Structure to design on (418 residues):
């Protein structure tokens, strides 16, 4: 797809190049202000995380018609197909796998609880709306909810897979896509806000944060011992490793997806999706490099460059959000609110049960709802060294999202009497 958009959008800005410049300038302005050039901005960003603005300012541009967040090529293919896998490579390249394993079974328990919360949330929200406002769940609404379950357990690829499996109407699918973005953005905004206050929350709840503190200290010590001012050679090697592996991932993803597509069972695990293979191979490549001398690139700023890519991805996700589209079927938003509330209650209860820290709640929740694109962002909001934990949990959903969402769809089909 050409970088210059050819659509007939009525937005003020229709050029992808101009849109790229606007997003880059917006991100730069946000982080410059977040650095605290004046006392006002120091106080402002003490309460409003910079990451939150990276979502909602592009969403505001889209809502008021300044840009067209959907009809452009910045998110797909540039951000999602190029920058996301590059970020995964650079964030996992410096991973301390042994340290992550030391975080223990509590993290996996909270993550699984988040998945259970999504399944229960679908059932509860459908039943509640059938009692309160039956038209909201009439007809094929259950099909759209099955597709949404695919997104909130796995990711976009799983959501599309559920659309194909249940033959979801394009309009209904689009409406649930708006609910998806709105609720996921609201959840991320809440988690980003809580991340800044995680220490106080953990202290009040009596959470055991020793494993996380040890990992942070170990990463900090490693960085202190190996940090250096990056040279031009360092930066070029980092870029070469990141985008070279992205190219390799794309080169082998289509053949792999085509090979697995010959087997009917592969669709249940999204193994027939080329994008899933891009994510999996990029993550695996980064993990393998973490056991080699390539890990030393972290001391030259590999993860920081990866984080830059992630922030641009965040802005591209945010620009697709249009608050006004929810007015078409506002009852679907009510379904999303009930659904997400159940998820939050279940994962919060599970965390309190095992005295898990707030970080486990954040990364476990977004590992389900946001998958590999958003989970590392939330993890990094708690501490940059924890981003790889989000990457790992986010990719788990891709393998299980389609199968579990299919199971959810079958339950909803019975409840709808279809």
């Amino acid at each position: 797809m050409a970088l210059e958009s050819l659509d007939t959008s009525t937005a003020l800005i229709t050029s992808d190049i101009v849109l790229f410049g606007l997003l880059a300038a917006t991100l730069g302005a946000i982080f410059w202000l977040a650095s605290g050039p004046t006392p006002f901005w120091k106080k402002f960003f003490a309460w409003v995380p910079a990451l939150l603005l990276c979502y909602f300012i592009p969403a505001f541009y889209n809502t008021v018609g300044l840009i067209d967040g959907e009809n452009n090529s910045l998110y797909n293919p540039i951000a999602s197909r190029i920058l996301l896998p590059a970020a995964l490579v650079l964030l996992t390249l410096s991973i301390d796998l042994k340290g992550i394993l030391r975080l223990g079974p509590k993290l996996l328990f909270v993550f699984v609880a988040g998945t259970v919360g999504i399944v229960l949330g679908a059932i509860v929200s459908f039943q509640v709306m059938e009692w309160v406002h039956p038209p909201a769940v009439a007809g094929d609404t259950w099909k759209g909810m099955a597709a949404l379950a695919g997104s909130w357990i796995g990711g976009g690829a799983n959501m599309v897979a559920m659309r194909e499996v249940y033959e979801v109407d394009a309009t209904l699918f689009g409406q649930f896509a708006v609910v998806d973005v709105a609720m996921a953005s609201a959840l991320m905004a809440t988690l980003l806000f809580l991340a800044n206050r995680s220490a106080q929350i953990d202290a009040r709840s009596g959470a055991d944060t020793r494993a996380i503190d040890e990992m942070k200290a170990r990463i900090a010590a490693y960085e202190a011992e190996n940090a250096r001012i990056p040279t031009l050679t360092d930066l070029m090697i980092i870029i070469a490793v990141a985008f070279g592996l992205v190219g390799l991932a794309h080169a082998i993803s289509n053949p792999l997806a085509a090979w697995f597509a010959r087997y009917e069972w592969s669709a249940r695990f999204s193994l027939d999706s080329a994008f899933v293979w891009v994510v999996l191979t990029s993550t695996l490549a980064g993990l393998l490099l973490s056991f080699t001398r390539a890990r030393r690139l972290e001391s030259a700023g590999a993860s920081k460059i990866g984080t830059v890519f992630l922030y641009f991805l965040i802005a591209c996700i945010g620009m697709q959000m249009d608050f006004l589209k929810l007015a078409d079927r506002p009852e679907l938003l009510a379904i999303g609110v009930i659904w997400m509330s159940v998820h939050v209650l279940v994962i919060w209860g599970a965390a309190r049960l095992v005295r898990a820290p707030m970080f486990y709640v954040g990364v476990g929740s977004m590992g389900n709802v946001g998958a590999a694109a958003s989970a590392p962002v939330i993890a990094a909001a708690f501490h940059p060294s924890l981003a790889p934990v989000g990457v790992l949990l986010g990719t788990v959903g891709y393998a299980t999202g389609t199968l579990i969402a299919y199971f959810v769809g079958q339950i909803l089909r019975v409840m709808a009497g279809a």
Q: What stands out?
A: The radius of gyration is 21 Å. The chain has 18 helices and no strands. The chain has one domain: 16-416. Residues 227 and 299 are 4 Å apart (CA to CA).
